[in-house]
Amino acid sequence: MHKPAIRDAMLLLVRIVVGIICIIRGLDKLFFRGMDEVIGSYSAQAVPAPAVVAWVVMLLEVFLGAALVVGLLTTFVAGVLFVAAAVMQYFLGGIEFLGDQPSYEPMLMFFTLLLVIVVFGAGRASVDGVLARAES
Length: 136
Description:
This protein has helices at about 5-35, 35-45, 50-70, 75-90, 105-120, 125-135. It is mostly helical.
């Protein structure tokens, strides 16, 4: 199980899953729930500058999620997403995952997967991996 190909395949899988989750959450805010509802929800939960935070969070989820999928600036992106998710967890208490009830368990899994990416990087099957091989 210590074969580089298996490790890289698992890092690719983790990156794709986490990135797609981020993209789905961002697009849900933008197109399905609507930014007005998200801003209202953030305002009701005393998130500072709820309109700014809602738009920033949505943009981070979509664009940094896409960066994770392709493996671009992966450890930095995962770190930013970890910090953003931790801040939102602080303000919102439990984060909904396309549902009505806040829950901590999905967020704990999400934090863990982001830390795996921060610690182990993107793997060879990524833009970062291609750029690292080109520099060698």
